[in-house]
């Protein structure tokens, strides 16, 4: 997801200025900017903040708190700055989606080879053996009184990939809010938080990508629609770029937590607007598991969550079509 001006070049110029910072983090890029005279955060502050965040929630850093949990059996999360809150967010979405969002699928993702250059799908026996110990509830115990997170089975592991990036956006937003920033655009790896107005004193204009394998990169980016946003978080999840092929068959990177297999339906991308980027990120992942019909049913049955969703899917003729919740119409650019 990117901020766009339909009448100007949308290519990215990398720079650090008094009202914009761009850089790299979490294996991706970030942009933080404001329409005010200056940002109330420095390059060194954002660098230290995101490094501290990764030191708790990154699955790629061997010394992170998350990696310690995956390697050991028990960790203390009571004094963590980010881990405990991310766990609580994750558990809430897990419960509301009846397990369609489940951070314990990490062993399944690894078995399917999405963290390595593997092209050999696991056997049914292998999948069944992993399902025996996955499950966000049955696999661990949260000792709230003592602040301990304990594994109940040795092979149990967590991966907050589907929520942590969105949560990192919220962490930056909370910092800027505390500093009194009245306007900002925060984007990390496509997850967004928006507040106030842009330089034209209008809500931030965000483009939704056309979900095709070829549509990648900032230059000549093809957009399906435009949203006018402020005071919300936004995230998009999709299968159209992350998959591998074996014997002519495509395997999606989204794993169904209950079957242990990559999902196979016609949903290409799910864009979610929520009160925070963390929740938008997590629900977008859950909706990619559910598919079109289940997602739309979920949205209609859970109005208290305040979610708006925009789905792009492939019809039987191979054309891309859209469906969106009633609340999404409020965000369309007029």
Question: Could you explain how this protein is built, in words?
Answer:
By secondary structure, this protein is an alpha+beta fold. The chain has a domain at 64-152: Orthogonal Bundle (T-fold), CATH 1.10.3980.10. Helices cover 28% and strands 25% of the residues. The protein is built from 8 helices and 17 strands. The strands form 4 sheets. The chain has a 9-stranded antiparallel beta sheet with strand order 2-3-4-8-9-12-15-16-17, covered by helices on one side. The protein starts with a strand and ends in a 10-residue tail after the last strand.
Quick overview of this protein structure:
By secondary structure, the protein is of the alpha+beta class. The protein is built from 8 helices and 17 strands.
Output the keywords.
single chain; 334 residues; alpha+beta; T-fold; three-stranded antiparallel beta sheet
Sheet-strand content, in percent, reads 25-35%
Show unreliable segments.
5-15
CATH class of the domain at 64-152: Mainly Alpha
Count the beta strands: 17
Rg of Cα set: 20 Å
Give, in spatial order, the strands making up the sheet with the most strands. 2-3-4-8-9-12-15-16-17
CATH superfamily membership of the domain at 64-152: ApbE-like superfamily
By secondary-structure content and strand pairing, the structural class works out as alpha+beta
Q: Helicity range of the residues?
A: 25-40%
- Helix-strand topology string: EEEEHHEHHHEEHEEEEEEEEHHEE
Find the CATH topology of the domain at 64-152: T-fold
Estimate the mean pLDDT confidence: 88
CATH architecture of the domain at 64-152: Orthogonal Bundle
Largest sheet: 9 strands, antiparallel
Shape estimate: globular
| Distance between the first and last residues' Cα | 19 Å
Number of helices: 8
């Amino acid at each position: 997801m990117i901020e766009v001006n339909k009448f100007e070049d949308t290519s990215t110029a990398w720079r650090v200025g008094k009202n914009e910072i761009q850089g790299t983090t979490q294996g991706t890029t970030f942009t933080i900017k404001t329409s005010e005279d200056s940002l109330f955060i420095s390059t060194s502050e954002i660098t230290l903040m995101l490094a501290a965040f990764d030191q708790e929630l990154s699955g790629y850093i061997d010394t992170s708190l998350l990696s310690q949990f995956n390697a050991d059996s028990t960790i203390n999360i009571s004094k963590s700055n980010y881990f405990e809150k991310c766990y609580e967010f994750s558990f809430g979405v897990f419960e509301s989606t009846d397990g369609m969002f489940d951070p314990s699928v990490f062993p399944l993702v690894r078995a399917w080879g999405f963290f390595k250059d593997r092209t050999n799908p696991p056997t049914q026996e292998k999948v069944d053996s992993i399902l025996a110990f996955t499950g966000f509830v049955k696999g661990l115990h949260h000792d709230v009184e003592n602040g301990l997170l304990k594994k109940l089975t040795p092979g149990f592991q967590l991966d907050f990939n589907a929520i942590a990036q969105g949560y990192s956006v919220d962490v930056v937003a909370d910092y800027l809010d505390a500093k009194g920033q009245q306007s900002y655009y925060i984007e990390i790896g496509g997850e967004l938080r928006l507040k106030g107005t842009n330089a034209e004193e209008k809500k931030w204009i965000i483009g939704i990508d056309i979900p095709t394998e070829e549509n990648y990169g900032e230059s000549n980016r093809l957009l399906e629609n435009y949203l006018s946003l402020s005071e919300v978080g936004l995230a998009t999840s999709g299968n159209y770029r992350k998959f591998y092929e074996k014997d002519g068959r495509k395997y999606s990177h989204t794993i169904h937590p209950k079957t242990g297999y990559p999902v196979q339906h016609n949903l290409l991308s799910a864009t979610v607007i929520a009160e925070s980027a963390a929740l938008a990120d997590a629900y977008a992942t859950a909706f990619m598991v559910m598919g079109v019909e289940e997602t739309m049913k979920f949205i209609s049955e859970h109005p208290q969550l305040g979610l708006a969703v925009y789905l792009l899917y492939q019809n039987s003729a191979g054309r891309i079509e859209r469906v969106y919740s009633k609340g999404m119409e409020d965000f369309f650019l007029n």
